[in-house]
Amino acid sequence: MAKPATLEKHSHHASDVRFASIERYSSVARTVEILSDPWGFLVLRECFFGVRRFEHFQSLLQVPRTTLVERLKKFTLLGLLKKQIPAGGGARHEYRLTDKGRDLYATMIALLAFGDKWLSGDALPPLKLIHKSCGCDCTPHVACSHCHAEIDPRLVHYRDGPGAGKAARLENRKRSRRASDPTVLERVRPCSVARTLQIIGDRWSFLVIREFFYGVRRFDEFQTRLGIATNILADRLHRLVEQGVANKMLYQEGPKRYEYRLTEMGRDLYGPMLVMMHWGDKWLSEGLPPLKLRHRACDHDFHAVIVCDKCGNELEAREMSFVARYSLPAELAAA
Ligand SMILES: [Zn+2]
Ligand SMILES: [Zn+2]
Q1: Which helix (H) or strand (E) holds 208?
Q2: How far is the CA of 119 from the centre of ligand 1 (A)?
Q3: Residue 276 Cα, ligand 1 centroid: separation in angstroms?
């Protein structure tokens, strides 16, 4: 079986685990950290659905006031939202996505496409996406920015970028708790993005998945690379197997030894990871991406984009519309 994308060349001593683990803490992790806070995620999601006023966020999400104040402040400081007086005047402020915030659209769509494909069960996905420029129902794909071909992890080559080793962590480390509570994440709306975040939104699960994409398969190796406690690692691997992201396989008899491999579903997380990496590179790395990617299929450096499966063009928020296959409670939908 062909190996998934591996970090082919590592310019630092493998024994320097601490350094290696920091260096590998790429832009994807920074992006996941923003999205993996459940309330924060809900606020951003509703921004993409056009919610702008404090009272509307509050009534729609039933979020405690202080929590909402705190999240709006955080996103404003991070430069994802801007607070402004509405165009028509009026005393109440609105919160609008900045360019940086709006640019998370590709990430949201990549997470949504994964959730639609793998986590909708027998039901139709909650949203039907329509690409207005081609007029078609659209299933977004993650593709190469240069050739627009869908990305196969085996055809991606990594090398250190100018920001390698400089990856400062975005937030303090106090949140090592498990994946977000689904009843919070899907509050108000069924949501494929939220379902995907239940898999990757937990910091350790996310890091384990990322190591899979570097070719890691064995317990000891995950542990060495991540500096993760054995009980936490065992728990996360167990969960990933339960969720269908990885398989546990016997590779040696007497003593029995196991290794873990991504399933087809797990490998499909590669696209969303690359899209998140691009956002992190663009907005959180001060122009110094920790990793550079090359697409072997077209032999060009690239970043991940999302394209329409029907017309092959890159998807932009303003060219998209959607039909919800669920209904909001009437008193909430208005406002
Ligand atoms: Zn390409
Ligand atoms: Zn299209």
Answers
A1: helix 203-213
A2: 28
A3: 18
Q: Max Cα separation, the chain? A: 75
Count of C-beta atoms within a 10 Å radius of residue 176: 11
Check whether the bond before 153 is cis (ω within 30° of 0).
no
- Tell me the mean pLDDT per 10 residues along the chain, length 335: 42 39 59 83 90 92 92 94 84 90 93 92 90 94 95 86 59 43 69 84 86 91 91 96 96 91 94 89 79 92 95 91 80 52
Output the CATH code of domain 19-178+273-333: 1.10.10.10
Task: Identify the helix (H) or strand (E) that includes residue 100.
Answer: helix 99-102
Q: 73 C-alpha to center of ligand 2: Å?
A: 36
Distance CA 42, CA 4 (A): 33
Quote the pLDDT of residue 4. 45
The bound ligand whose nearest atom lies closest to the alpha carbon of 132 is 2
